[in-house]
Write a structure and sequence with these properties.
This protein is mainly β. Helices cover 13% and strands 37% of the residues. It has 3 domains: 97 residues, no CATH class; 326 residues, YVTN repeat-like/Quinoprotein amine dehydrogenase (Methylamine Dehydrogenase, Chain H), CATH 2.130.10.10; 274 residues, YVTN repeat-like/Quinoprotein amine dehydrogenase (Methylamine Dehydrogenase, Chain H, 7 Propeller), CATH 2.130.10.10. The strands form 15 sheets. A 5-stranded antiparallel sheet has the order 29-30-57-56-55, with no helix packed on it. Strands 1-2-3-4 form a 4-stranded antiparallel sheet, with no helix packed on it. It has a 4-stranded antiparallel sheet with strand order 5-6-7-8, with no helix packed on it.
Length: 811
């Protein structure tokens, strides 16, 4: 409450420690019942006390880099504090620390000798000092709002993009619904009824209509691709090249390559998965070299002494969220549907571990594939048994194992429960369907044994992906196969204008020509059919039911918008279809629309409210929150909490939509004008021009910052009320460009690039901050900006009840 005399930090601390008198305690309790801000500070302090008590609970593996840094006198004060706390209770690590410190002594006793040329070259390289990642107390610093204040202070001035994975023991929070446990060569997109097939020999990915079995597109990715994964959150197919550690991303709508990046992964990657809830990328790797980059069962047995890692990567910035060292060399890592347990699968053993700590829970036989069922209560492991196969079970009421004829290939979980195992009979493949009781209930024959399998629940048909000339085989009465062309000469990369819609297939044609050879009938591809060319050179998409878009959120295939009648809706940027989600309070004055992972926030600054929409259900919860009335900066973190700052208070306040808990951190400044929460859960803030400070990094003189956003490369961008565009990278800030007017907002596109936009009467000026293109002006009366999957600007035009879409062939 503004104007209410708050409890001092000393009073709250004494209350927590039981040091207040009876009268003082009663007065403090009375105050806390009527003061939301102080109650939030007390709750944050209580959680922080609990977190600090856990500060020393680092794993031995995560402590090793700190011990090495201490031996070299490179450790920070925070690193030393946690290391000392751990060493007090761990004799093994005390021994390691002594060994590291004794290494210097042993080196000094070696006889003098002239170093080799190789050693000289190495010493020369040391003249260029490496940048060490600042310590991140990931075991506790990101768990609560109070502890997040520590993370904020550590983030100030720190390097934003590192080349080494973090040493901390951060818990992987991904929740993987693992319908396919094996290395994937074929994945199924149920939204478009399309199968994506990887041809490793030709380094190509084919998009095949699952109903007609006709090829829609063929994309050349180059290199030595080894696995596929489907990312619903980014609307892309991910292609892993284990040899070069390269990740290629293909847009599901245009079938064009939209991004390539190098994964910061320890060792050789062995599998790739995507968490369908958060979109995080999960990569398993082994540190010892393997004969093949792709673990081909059963020859992919782990090398003796090999160790493994599980790396969780942000899908947009490609920054490493967490790294887990494990005692096995996993070919695969599979999480259950709730993210509570995981399977570490190798040829020698399958280990059931806790998904948070990765501590071993149970051991099962090794195999070529394994999966949790859809409930997460049952586990099945497929392995070789002489010349046959065996499925080993874990779960109540299941038999110990089930013998199957044929060589084992892969195993998946069925959407209705149970599992399906693909075995090689020598003359083809057979898919054995196993029910939830562990008994064989049916078989499906395919003409190809292949490498991976997927299931289409709509048609109740399996698709098996193989190698070489034969690409796909489908189960069913005819058990048909799709054969790849004998020769292939695709372009090095599909053009960005590849049409999203497939050519009309002929049922009698099994494998038509690639889509790259098909010329669109008319107009730019990928636009909604109703979009019409306007006199101003943009394409105008008129909206039905008098939708007048005012606020926008999100980019890609789905864009959220709030219209002038306070109706919340989504629009499909490929088809133009509008889905009404909810009616927000009509008396609200909504100024911001913020999209999180599972929630969307509409900020009503006129009435002091938050309208919180649960994305999965469309439910709306309107919460009175007076702080939002005067707040200037808003941001949503990866945990879906909304953060607010500025106005008359020096506190940065967070609200958790799940628990309805409020927490506050005193940043000791009431001049915060913008906030951003990055993928590492760090809060960045910009102060008003009077302090001449941007997230505590010295910067040139600038006007008040209106927006903060971080791009996919880890550069923080700021836009100001004077149209200045400021970049902050590696702790250095500088004005790099002009937005062409006061910055109305900074927007991330679907590929993680950042754009600014400035609004003037009848026009909008926008420019990319992550590409060399200059500012562009569109003659549209704009209220917001978003981007479709092809990177085209969608400009909200409330006056015309339409979206203006800019199509630039030169981009």
């Amino acid at each position: 409450m503004v104007g209410l005399p708050h409890c001092s930090p000393e009073t709250l601390s004494a209350l927590l420690d039981g040091e207040l008198s009876v009268g003082e305690r009663a007065r403090a309790r009375w105050h806390l019942e009527s003061c939301l801000e102080c109650a939030a500070r007390l709750a944050a302090s209580r959680r922080l006390d609990a977190d600090l008590r856990d500060a020393g609970q680092l794993s031995c593996a995560s402590l090793l880099p700190f011990l090495s840094a201490m031996a070299d006198d490179e450790a920070t004060a925070a690193e030393r504090t946690l290391a000392v706390a751990h060493l007090a209770d761990c004799a093994a690590c005390r021994g390691v620390s002594a060994e590291l410190r004794g290494a210097d002594v042993r080196l000094s006793t070696l006889p003098a000798a002239a170093p080799s040329a190789r050693v000289d070259a190495f010493i020369v390289a040391l003249a260029h000092p490496r940048i060490r990642r600042a310590f991140r107390p990931v075991t506790f610093a990101f768990r609560t709002a109070g502890a997040l204040a520590i993370a904020t202070l550590i983030a100030i001035g720190s390097t934003l993009l590192q080349v080494s994975p973090p040493a901390g023991d951060q818990a992987a929070q991904s929740t993987e619904v693992a319908m396919v446990a094996a290395i994937q060569r074929v994945v199924f997109d149920g939204h478009t009824n399309t199968l994506y097939l990887l041809d490793s020999e030709r380094a190509e990915v084919s998009a095949v209509d699952a109903t007609t079995q006709s090829e829609r597109a063929r994309v050349s990715v180059g290199g030595k691709p080894t696995a596929l994964a489907l990312s619903a959150s980014t609307n892309r197919v991910l292609v892993l090249d284990a040899t070069s550690k390269r990740l290629t991303e293909i847009d599901l709508s245009s079938h064009a390559i939209v991004a390539t990046s190098t994964l910061v992964v320890t060792g050789t990657p062995t599998s790739l998965q995507v968490d369908p809830t958060s979109g995080k990328i999960v990569v398993a790797s082994i540190s010892a070299p393997v004969v093949n980059a792709v673990p081909a069962p059963p020859a992919a047995a782990s090398a003796a002494g090999a160790t493994g890692h599980v790396t969780v990567i942000d899908p947009v910035s490609k920054e490493v969220d967490s790294v887990r060292a494990v005692d096995v060399a996993p070919q695969l890592v599979v999480l259950d549907a709730k993210g509570a347990q995981a399977l570490l699968i190798s040829a020698r053993e399958t280990t059931v571990v806790d998904a948070a700590s990765y501590k071993s829970i149970d051991q099962l036989p090794g195999g070529v594939a394994a999966a949790f069922d859809v409930t997460g209560a049952q586990v099945a492991v497929l392995s070789a048994d002489g010349n046959a196969s065996r499925v080993t079970f874990r779960g109540a009421g299941l038999p110990a194992s089930l013998a199957l004829p044929g060589h084992p290939v892969t195993l998946i979980a069925m959407p209705s429960g149970g599992f399906a195992a693909l075995v090689d009979r020598g003359t083809g493949g057979e898919i054995e369907v196993i029910d939830a009781s562990g008994h064989l209930v049916s078989s499906a024959t395919v003409v190809l044994a292949g490498r991976s399998v997927t299931f289409d629940p709509t048609t109740a048909r399996f698709a098996v992906g193989g190698d070489g000339g034969v690409g796909l085989a489908f189960s069913g009465g005819s058990s048909t196969a799709v054969t790849a062309p004998a020769t292939s000469a695709p372009p090095t990369a599909p053009p960005a204008t590849a049409p999203a819609a497939s050519p009309t297939p002929k049922p009698s044609v099994v494998a038509p020509s690639p889509i790259a050879s098909v010329t669109p009938a008319a107009g730019p591809p990928g636009l909604p059919p109703a979009a019409q060319l306007a006199p101003n050179g943009t394409y105008r998409l008129a909206l039905a039911d008098n939708h007048r878009p005012v606020l926008l959120a999100g980019s890609g295939r789905t864009v959220w918008f709030l219209d002038a009648a306070k109706r919340l809706a989504t629009i499909d940027t490929t088809t133009g279809a509008i889905t009404d989600v909810a009616q927000l309070p009509v008396d609200g004055t909504f100024t911001r629309l913020l999209l999180g992972t599972g929630h969307l926030y509409a900020v009503d600054q006129g009435r002091g409210r938050l309208a919180i929409v649960t994305i999965g259900t469309g439910g709306v919860d309107v919460v009175g929150f007076p702080f939002v009335t005067s707040a200037a900066g808003f941001a949503v973190g990866i945990d879906d909490k909304i953060w607010m700052a500025g106005g008359e208070s020096s506190n940065v306040v967070s609200f958790d939509p799940a628990t309805k808990r409020v927490a506050a951190i005193d940043f000791r400044t009431s001049s915060i004008t913008a906030l951003h929460v990055d993928s590492a859960a760090r809060v960045w803030y910009a102060e008003d021009a009077t302090t001449q400070a941007l997230i505590a990094v010295g910067s040139p003189r600038h006007a008040s910052v209106t927006s903060l956003v971080m791009d996919r490369e880890g550069t923080l961008w700021a836009g100001t009320a004077a149209g200045e565009l400021i970049s902050v990278r590696l702790g250095i800030a500088g004005v790099v460009a002009s937005a062409g007017g006061p910055v109305a907002g900074l927007v991330r596109d679907a590929s993680g690039g950042v754009w600014s936009f400035a609004v003037a009467p009848g026009t909008v000026t926008y420019r990319s901050l992550t590409s060399p293109a200059g500012p562009q002006i569109a003659a549209v009366a704009a209220s917001g900006l978003a981007f479709d999957g092809l990177g085209r600007p969608w400009i909200a035009d409330p006056a015309g009840a339409a979206f203006g879409i800019v199509v630039s062939e030169g981009r």
